[in-house]
Amino acid sequence: MKVLLAPDKFKGSLTAADVAAHLAAGLRRALPGVEVDELPVADGGEGTVEAALAAGFTPVGLAATGPLGERVDTRYAVRGSTAVIEMAAVTGLEMVEPDDATARTATSRGLGELVAHALDHGATTLVVGVGGSASTDGGAGMLAALGARLTGPDGELADGGDALRAVTSVDLSGLHPRLATAELVLASDVDNPLLGANGAAAVYGPQKGADPAAVADLEAGLAAWVDVLERAGVDRARERAGAPGAGAAGGVGYACLLLGATRRPGVEVVLDLTGFDRRLAGVDLVVTGEGSLDEQSLAGKTPMGVADAAATHAVPTVAVCGRTTLTPEQARDAGIEAVHALTDIEPDVRRCISHAGELLEQLAARVAAPLLAPRHETVDS
């Protein structure tokens, strides 16, 4: 019996690697002799670099600009000429206390610094996971770190989405020269455009602390950003603002598309990077999961991506989670044969969070039960 464990993190409780380790321990107790392969994964947001490192990439550490201009220690992952960069690790929402001020001033500059560092050190393929961002600056900070020059009435423009309302010109002639030949992959499930009622500021601004006035100002800043790029003759600047994914990460998706990036679902990219298909060889069952398995999960989150990939090899998938609101029918329609939640064995949600590892090891016995049944039937016959 061989089981592949491919979970995402349980946010606020366990990393994806921790989830896999606890599941492995529980399965080995419940199924002596079982072969367990641990492959922590992610969906392009927090945990993407960790998933790459677990799959054999090498960490590259450096200091970069955090979401509010502070210096933060961060890292990305490399293997050969491929670099995996995670926005949440340098300018992520988890790094701030979201309020009106942070929503207006948060910058994507640190992400651009990581991209530049990777280019300087030989990367020719850059995978940029943009989930969990703090900024709504249209990727202006990222481009500035890569050599763009933004100016306003008083000279060089300050960082942050609110400052974009004053932008009067942009010069992209100083962009990092290696961008012209590098392959850029935007790992994101978000299909929002940059502007409008379904855009970056309107939909995601409130999650980042923006009140209605800040949302309106951020929207105005993004609109001014598109206008100035169009006036500067940037190819398809307005058209790309309306493209699916332009609104990802407060508009970093837009900046990536301007640089020629290809947008792909985050979990699909991570599964490719980690060699998921190769790891499926000889596997009898895949176990995936995340902290909350709900209707949002159905829109391309990690468990669904894992189940889809496993199904192409006719390998069944079950999921573990902290809690779930999905019906069994919804789960099966998504390719997941069964869902096992911590709340099935511990109704106290606070304890589920604080003792998630211990409870996952107990939950593994429920995952193992159907695998034991055929053996018992054979013995009885």
From TrEMBL:
NCBIfam families on file? glycerate kinase
What GO molecular function terms would the record report? glycerate kinase activity
User: Which keywords does UniProt give here?
Assistant: Kinase, Transferase
Q: Has keyword Cytoplasm? A: no
**Biological processes, Gene Ontology terms:** organic acid phosphorylation
Superkingdom as given in the UniProt entry? Bacteria
> Upper lineage ranks?
Bacteria, Bacillati, Actinomycetota, Actinomycetes, Micrococcales
Protein's recorded name: Glycerate kinase
